[in-house]
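REQUEST
  id: r-88c1
  op: predict_structure
  target: ATP synthase subunit b
  payload:
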Amino acid sequence: MPQFDFANVFLPQFVWLVGFFALLYFGIVKLTLPKLGKVIDTREGKVRSDILGAEAAKAESDKMAADYAAGIAAARDDARAVLTAAKAKSAKSVETKLAKAGGKTDAMIDDAETRIAAARGAAMGEIEAVAAEAAQAIVTKLTGLQPAKSDAQAAVKSAMAA
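RESPONSE
  id: r-88c1
  status: 200
  body:
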């Protein structure tokens, strides 16, 4: 078998091996690897620029979130101030209305007390008159003598005063 005859076959096979190795090596290293290196460099640059863009977008979104939170806080403070002012205005209005109603109520109470006092006086006068008549009738029935109307009224007044 000729392939096992190493004395005659080794040198030509070795030459072919070196030739193909050199051809493949220089074909890959000189032609393919630079193109592949450019692709890798381009991709690395794109990834870096994307990462930088993402970091810039994140920083901007963080700034926007902080601005939004500050805006919300300012709006809450404004709303609290408006609410406090509205409460104060409402309380003042209620106090004014209560004062007016209190004045009207006081006037009505004073008027009612005056009418009650007048009615009490009239009732006391009528009670005294009825009591004087009753006292006259009792004394007349018990003694048979009719006392004077003025004496009966004086006796009723002194009894009521005591």
